[in-house]
Amino acid sequence: MPARFVSIFDRPLRLALVAVLAAFALAPAAVAQQQDLSEPARIAYDEARTALQRAIDADVSAYPDQPLWAEAIRRAREAASAAPSDRRTLGLLAETYSRSNFYARALNAWHDYLARGYSLDAVQSPLFLRVSEEMAYAAYQRGDLQEAARIHMEVLDAVPFSKESRVWMGRIRMEQERPVDAIPYWEAVVQQDPDDARARYFLTLAEDQTRHGVDAANRFRAGVAHYEAGDLDAAARSFERATDANPEYAEAWAWRGRIAFERGSYLAAERHYANAVELAPGNETYLYFRNESERRRN
Fold this sequence. Notes:
By secondary structure, the protein is mainly alpha-helical. Helix content is about 75%, strand content about 0%. The protein has 16 helices and no strands. Helix 5 (about 85-100) crosses helix 7 (about 125-140) and helix 14 runs parallel beside helix 16 (about 285-295). It starts with 12 loop residues before the first helix and ends with a helix.
């Protein structure tokens, strides 16, 4: 697997943003109930917005201790304190934390914002996704798959069409040896992006793992890879381990038979193909090579 799965997958925010904006249009209740800001809160909000824009315009390194960003954070906190339930002040606080790369605070602020029933707009959605992805990846890097999955599931609650989080949920469930739970995520990715060959591969792998068992399916895939690389010894060992892990894996038995047949070991080939035929009696290919192995053996 690549060192960082995120980097080899596109970050298709366009579909996510369409979904978010559609949800925003359909659910304006929270905005409609919003009260006008008091004069002190309005002043605090305007000052916070100005401080944020000043930090953005200065094009300085974004981190919480940098003076301009520290000032923007301080002002955003003051605005949120002045109007702690207002969509504008809560959104501005989350945005400021996000732009300053204060990821942990940003994610908490976005959760507070979303918990009050507010929806993400076209500016906020990419910030929320980036912060969530960074926090989830940090959890993944330290081996906390449960926490990484929790964050991605929260993303999908807010942005249901996030391909990035669907991909990660598929991967995490497979790494947790829960292929049956991975399948819906890979199916969703393939439906969203039919040209994603990698997602199709992992969908098929998850289906095979569900059908044959994780270890058996992985051994089988390794055997095919070794065979295609021309290493018949390694391929034979992998297919043998696949049938050891799942003695009812017809295709693995057939591959054992294929390798034996290609090596001229017709007695072994007949035996392996016979096992495959017993498990899949309707497969004409298995039956043919069992009979051909028997004929050549004699």
